[in-house]
Design a protein that fits this description.
CATH topology: Globin-like
Strand content: under 5%
Structural class: mainly alpha
CATH superfamily: Globins
Number of strands: 0
Number of domains: 1
Distance between the termini: 18 Å
Order of helices and strands: HHHHHHHH
Number of helices: 8
Length: about 150
C-alpha cells in the first residue's frame, strides 16, 4: 500500500486529537449494540445484555483500548501493517474463530465514532484517508482467513 505524505499527515493529525480509551470504548459499544451477534466472541466480558450494560462494562473499555493501542502501532508503522497484524490474524483465525466480517463492522463503527468526535473536521478527504487505513488493517487482520 502506498501512503502519500498528505495521507500520513492526515492520519497523524486526527490521531493526535483522539482520546484512545474513549474512542475504543465507544466503537466497541456501538459494535455490540448495532451488531449484537458480535458479542458471542466476548462471553468472558459478563453482562452485555443491554445498551446500558455494554456502555458501563469495564471489559468493553479495556478491550476498546487494546484495539486502539494496536491501531496506534499501525499508525506508527504504516508501511508494515501486514507484518504487524500477522500474529493477531493467526490468533483470531486459529484460536478465537472470529468471523472476519466483524473486523469490517468494527471499522465502520470506528468511522462513526470519529465523525461524532471530529464533526466538520471529518471532511470527505479525511474520511477517505481513515477508511483506507482501516481497510488496510482489516485486510491484514483477515489475511489468515484466505
Amino acid at each position: 500500500v502506498h501512503w502519500t505524505e498528505t495521507e500520513r499527515a492526515t492520519i497523524e493529525t486526527v490521531y493526535q486529537k483522539l482520546h484512545l480509551d474513549e474512542v475504543g470504548r465507544e466503537a466497541l459499544t456501538r459494535l455490540f449494540i448495532v451488531y449484537p451477534w458480535t458479542t458471542r466472541y466476548f462471553k468472558s466480558f459478563g453482562d452485555l445484555s443491554s445498551s446500558k450494560a455494554i456502555a458501563s462494562n469495564p471489559k468493553v473499555t479495556e478491550h476498546g483500548l487494546k484495539v486502539m493501542n494496536k491501531l496506534t502501532e499501525a499508525i506508527h508503522n504504516l508501511d508494515h501493517i501486514k507484518d504487524l497484524f500477522h500474529k493477531l490474524s493467526e490468533k483470531h483465525f486459529h484460536e478465537l474463530h472470529v468471523d472476519p466480517q466483524n473486523f469490517k463492522l468494527l471499522s465502520k463503527c470506528l468511522i462513526i465514532v470519529l465523525a461524532t468526535k471530529l464533526g466538520k473536521q471529518l471532511t470527505p478527504d479525511v474520511q477517505a484517508t481513515w477508511e483506507k487505513l482501516l481497510s488496510v488493517v482489516v485486510a491484514a487482520l483477515s489475511r489468515e482467513y484466505h
